[in-house]
Every structure is written in C-alpha cells, then in structure tokens.
Amino acid sequence: MTTKMMELVSDFGQIQIYDDEEFDGDELDWTEESLVEFAVFGDQCVGLQVIENDDHKIPVSVLATAPEADLSSWDHIVEVPFECLSSKITIADEELNLPAGNYTVRWSIKKTGEFRGNYQLDFVAQQSAGRRVLKQMSV
C-alpha cells in the first residue's frame, strides 16, 4: 500500500482523474443519478464530485486489495471503474504514477459543514463492473 497526501484543486464542483496519454478529452456525462452518487466515469476518466470548490488536502492510496469500507467514518462512499493504460495519471492538476491496469476508484466523503467536506481517494487494483454506492449521503 502506498499513500500520498495530495493538494488537489476542485473546479466546477469536481475533481477529474484521467490517464495522461490515453484520455481523448471527451466531456463526462453527469446525469442526475451520478450527481446524487458523487461520481461519473468514462474511458480513462473519472469525475468525483466535491461539496465545495476549494484547495483540498486529500490522502490518495494505491492498494493491492480493497479494505473493508469504513461506513462509520464517512457520510458517502462510492466506487467506480478506472483503467490506467499509460502508468501516469492526472488528478486535478497533479500527476501520479500508477501501474497500468484496472482499478476500482473508491471516493469517500465526510461532510464537515454546510459547504465543507473531507475526502479520501483510493485506487484498488481490481476490475470493477460499474458505479457502486457503498453508503449514500442524504442530499
């Protein structure tokens, strides 16, 4: 397991993750369902919704296996698939080396105020079928 604290800037209510060399720049299709579930995904790209646009200090972990979801510590947890082809990804404006392969991206959110939140981002080395909400925050 590798964990790195990253300073990430959100824009338009989201943090985007994409494969540097493989992402074709297509817009993500935020539907009403994906907005409620705080995540959307496409080819070599993931969008993660945040509570507020701000600078965020977020722990980012790369894991070989998925830990049990800590449902008591987070208000919302969602997982989406991500395929890394180039071994280098961008999260917001920051680069991260990530071994090529299939991942489940786990996005955990803790609401700390009306317009504030804490976040955790995990890349789990495993295939994922689609978006899966482990805990739903009431909106």
> How much strand content do the residues show?
over 45%
Structural class: mainly beta
* Overall body shape: globular
| Named CATH topology | Substrate Binding Domain Of DNAk, Chain A, domain 1
CATH class: Mainly Beta
Helix content: under 10%
- Corresponding CATH architecture: Sandwich
What is the number of independent domains? 1
Q: Count up the helices.
A: 1
- Give the low-pLDDT segments: none
Mean of residue pLDDT?
89
List keywords for this structure.
139 residues; Substrate Binding Domain Of DNAk, Chain A, domain 1; 1 helix; 4% helix; 11 strands; five-stranded antiparallel β-sheet; mainly beta
Blueprint of the fold:
Blueprint (H helix, E strand, L loop, with lengths): L1 E8 L4 E6 L12 H6 L1 E4 L2 E5 L5 E9 L12 E9 L3 E4 L2 E4 L3 E13 L2 E9 L7 E4 L4
Parallel strand pairs: 5-10
Antiparallel strand pairs: 1-5, 2-4, 2-7, 3-4, 6-9, 6-11, 7-8, 9-10
Structure overview:
There is one protein chain. A six-stranded mixed beta sheet has the order 1-5-10-9-6-11, with no helix packed on it. The protein has a five-stranded antiparallel beta sheet with strand order 3-4-2-7-8. The longest helix has 6 residues, at 32-37. The chain contains one helix and eleven strands; from the N terminus they run E-E-H-E-E-E-E-E-E-E-E-E. The model has no long low-confidence stretch (mean pLDDT 89). It has one domain (2-135): Competence, DNA-entry nuclease inhibitor, ComJ (Substrate Binding Domain Of DNAk, Chain A, domain 1, Sandwich). With 139 residues, it is mostly beta strands. The protein has one helix at 32-37, and strands spanning 2-9, 14-19, 39-42, 45-49, 55-63, 76-84, 88-91, 94-97, 101-113, 116-124, 132-135.
